[in-house]
UniProtKB/TrEMBL annotation:
Catalysed reactions, semicolon-separated: tRNA(Glu) + L-glutamate + ATP = L-glutamyl-tRNA(Glu) + AMP + diphosphate
Assembly: Monomer.
Span of domain Glutamyl/glutaminyl-tRNA synthetase class Ib catalytic: 25-332
Name recorded for this polypeptide: Glutamate--tRNA ligase
Motif mapping: 'HIGH' region: 31-41
The organism's place on the tree of life at top rank: Bacteria
EC number: 6.1.1.17
Subcellular location: Cytoplasm
Amino acid sequence: MASDTDTVSAGSGVGHAAPQPAGRVVTRFAPSPTGFLHIGGARTALFNWLYARHHGGTYLLRIEDTDRARSTDAAIDAIFDGLNWLGLGGDADPVFQFARSDRHAQVAQAMLDAGHAYRCYLTQEELAERRAKAQEERRPFRLQSEWRDADPATWPEGQPYVVRVKAPRDGETVIDDLVQGSITVQNAEIDDYVILRGDGTPTYMLAVVVDDHDMGVTHVIRGDDHINNAFRQLVIIRAMDAIEGGWADPAYGHIPLIHGADGAKLSKRHGALGVDAYRDEMGLLPEAVFNYLLRLGWGHGDEEIISREQAVEWFDIADVNKGASRFDLKKLLNLNGHYLREADDARLADLVAPRLAALVPGFDAARDRALLVSAMPVLKVRAADLNELAKGAVFLFAQRPLALDEKAQSLLTADARGILGNVIGRLSGESDWTAPVLEASLKAMAAELGVGLGKIAQPLRASLTGQATSPGIFDVLVLLGKEEALARLNDHAA
């Protein structure tokens, strides 16, 4: 096992069924606060949340902030913000790993005292020489430290050292992974990795194990890039169980990573990576992102639209695919369009208002909210995201004289402007300003003029909205109101 990121081949495990938990389930999501909440991390959080909810258990959060140089408060806030937006906040106050460094060191000392770890005085230069020799001889580097079995009495006091775990050399370790099936690693492949650095600070590998134990985590569900780590971490777990008892192996479920549509590992070139970008820049709804992430590698028959309640009821970790999922932005946007159409109009108006204020000078969310809410039923059926929804609402609040786009200008020919004059005369006499009445009136007018309704509707739409496309023209008339609609028509009539 050369490094933390090497891939271990899984056993066949096809069609395996996840064993039902014997006791209370405790899962955790443990991100490192070095940036935004990655979309892949959000899915890992979701699967942990669902597994705990499905089994009536507990879902916890841990911030793995031991990398002090890269961990930031802004990143921590962004992670919590993204999780809360998706409804994946923890069931208890989050644990901050760095604050538990003394506890981690305590476990390392217990392993030292019991002979399950050792002080290694090899210098960086000596290690580099051995790695170079292994490379020169074209063989994998396996640390064989002469300090592994040295008598503690021979440890040179005052010299720098690290603490390494004493990994087993013989036999094999088998993990019955809830997703990947049975995985076997020869113990000779597991290295004597460092658990305490030269400055006395714990490594990630030690801190994770201690925190999971102390938090009572029973199921570790995480990306399959951590499969190798599971075998290495079991060395600590089993050593501590031998020392003091009560350190049970967790159940592992390693879920495949998310790839782009081209099959390559998801990266910036495939689109947004952070949950905040899906919310802020792309204008997606949390329920749509929740539903889409749920379907990335997991499914329930042919169901595509799955509510939170159904997800909790149906989720089974055994149904997670073993292969990587492909991220499809078009599917996500289609799903978001569905949830937009289902969303409460007042909620949508509140979400759209800040975006609309950036598009329309003078827009006042408090003053204009009622009109925005009333427009939602006809606007949301034409939009895939909040940005499109905001753009679709611009015409309602635009100031006269209305700016016309190029297509709208082309529709307002001399003949069309003449028709608008007739329309103004017709609509000025209408006292019942409702869609059915206005539709009947203009259809009658079209018949009288011997033209199709489109000959009237197209210049009408252009002058009322400044665009060649809009919601139904009779809905537009009603939303604008008689006074504003006639004023806009007058601006462009012959």
